[in-house]
Specification:
Elements lengths: L19 H26 L5 H27 L1 H4 L10
Helix pairs in contact: 1-2
Length: about 90
């Protein structure tokens, strides 16, 4: 009869919580230069277009840059800042 036992060393796991406020704060510093750059490129090319037409062109580019570039980069580079250890309240 064989018994199965876990011989791997146990690791202490630290619970973290995702901070939406910190995430939003960092995204501002990524979104601002991104939208400013896009507007500098798009506005001269769309001279004479209505605002809704310019917006229709900029929004898909902006969303794609955020989803596949900015947000993954922020989550990777600021992982420790965005996921601080959860504070535990001692039971009474």
């Amino acid at each position: 009869m064989t018994s199965t036992s876990d011989t791997s060393p146990t690791r202490a796991t630290v619970q973290t919580r995702f901070s939406r406020l910190r995430f939003a704060f960092i995204l501002v510093f990524g979104v601002y230069p991104l939208i400013t750059g896009l507007l500098y490129v798009v506005f001269p090319l769309t001279d004479g277009w209505a605002l809704w037409q310019r917006t229709l062109l900029v929004v898909p580019i902006m969303v794609a840059c955020m989803i596949w570039g900015l947000i993954p980069a922020v989550q990777r580079f600021f992982r420790g800042f965005l996921n601080p250890p959860a504070t535990t309240v001692p039971a009474c």
